[in-house]
Structure formats: C-alpha cells, structure tokens
Amino acid sequence: MSAPGVTATRLLVVNADDLGLSPGVNDGILEAHANGIVTSASLMVNRGGAEHAADRLGAHPDLSVGLHFEDDGVRDLDDPAQAAELFATQLERFRALTGREPTHLDSHHHVHNEDKRLEVFRELAEPLAVPVRHDGRVAYIGGFWAQWEIGVTNLGYIRRPFLVHLIANEARGPVTELACHPAKVLGDFRSSYLDERAVELATLTEPGLGEEIEALGITLVSYRDVEV
Predict the structure, then answer these.
(1) 10, 91, 115, 159: least buried by Cβ within 10 Å?
(2) First CA to last CA across the chain, in angstroms?
(3) Cβ proximity of 24 and 183 under 8 Å
C-alpha cells in the first residue's frame, strides 16, 4: 500500500507499536502489514521477541521500522544526560538487530512525551533526521484503542466503521500517523490489553479496507516514503 514519491493532500502512516514484545505480537504485526494496512512498526529492542522480529524483517522490505523507546526503570528520564545514555544504548541495540537506522522514534506509554522530555528526545533524534511522535511534524491519531477508560473495553473503537470514521475526521494534516497494536494472542506475553489485539488484527486485515481509506482521498504510506 505504500506509495513512494506520491503527491496527495493527505498521507497516512499506519504504525504498529510493540514489535519485538513477543513472537505472537510480531506475527500479528507482520500479517497486518502483508495482508492489511499497516505500513510501519516500532521495535522494542530489549524484549524477548526482538531477535525474532529482526530475523523476519528481511521478508518485509516495505515495512519501515522505528525505535519504540522504553523506560528501564533505573535511569531518570527527566535528567537529559541519563535519557541520552539510555537512548544511545537502545539505538545501538536497534542497529545491531536490524542493520539499519530507525525511520521514526516513539516510546512505550509515551514516556518520551512526559513533562519536559519531548525537547530532549527531539534533540537526540536530530542526527537521525527522523520524526518523533508528538513533535508536531506528523499529526497523531491514538483513538484506535479499545480501552479509552482504563480497564474498560469497548471493541467498537477497534472495529472497521469507527476506524474509517477516525481516519476520515482526524487525518487532516499533510501527514498523519495512526497507532495500532495488532497481535496473534498465543499465550506468549502478558498485557492488560490482550484479546483486543486480536480484534485489531482482524480489523486491519479486512478485505477492501485500504481501498475504502484511499477513496477518502488519503494515501497510505510508510515513514520511509515521506519527508517531514
């Protein structure tokens, strides 16, 4: 679905978070890319499925992959020096796993966007010349998520009608990212957001979904395809 060099009023990156969390998450994300509308993913480099994910990326050259930064619970991310140290460690791990540079930067539970951290992470990513989630260069849609209230699941928020509604009404800028969390639930990871991931996978791979989105005047692209 990606469209290098395309000129369009609205471009949409569909980005799957949590690549590397487990083999089941990896398999779900890669299926949502191969058979659905996912164009990009964000890799957690220190999780048990990170090597499994990296081993499979060669079969999916059109999937752009960014760094899904994580707080290690030890360093103080409000201290720019400690944040930089952890970022450098995870970036080198990303390079070692994938043999490439990340196409974008975001973080688990948006920890890079708390308090005054965003500017620090913008500076850390500047040598890479890639967008950082919430830095203003790419609009962000986070509503494709079944738990708008913590612990309360509404699957309607991750079904096709609501997804198309979200995109039609919130993908207003030149480039927008829609975050998603598809997975195959195989019992190989724990999460308060578990069975919902399988529903996301089913929605993202529904036949004709890409064509329905493009009929809105929106072109699906990956982070590799756009300059911001």
Answers:
(1) 115
(2) 20
(3) yes
Q: Using an 8 Å Cβ cutoff, are 77 and 110 in contact?
A: no
Residue 6 DSSP one-character state: -
Quick: pLDDT tens for 138-192.
Answer: 999 999 999 999 989 999 999 999 999 999 999 988 999 999 999 999 999 999 9
Angle between helices 117-125 and 80-98 (to 10 degrees): 40
Neighbours of 72 (CB within 10 A): 12
Output the six-digit token pair for 108.
């688990």
Q: Can you name the residues that pair with 149 across neighbouring β-strands?
A: 152
Residues 47-90: tens digit of each pLDDT: 999 999 999 999 999 999 999 999 999 999 999 999 999 999 99
Cα separation of 213 and 221, whole Å? 12
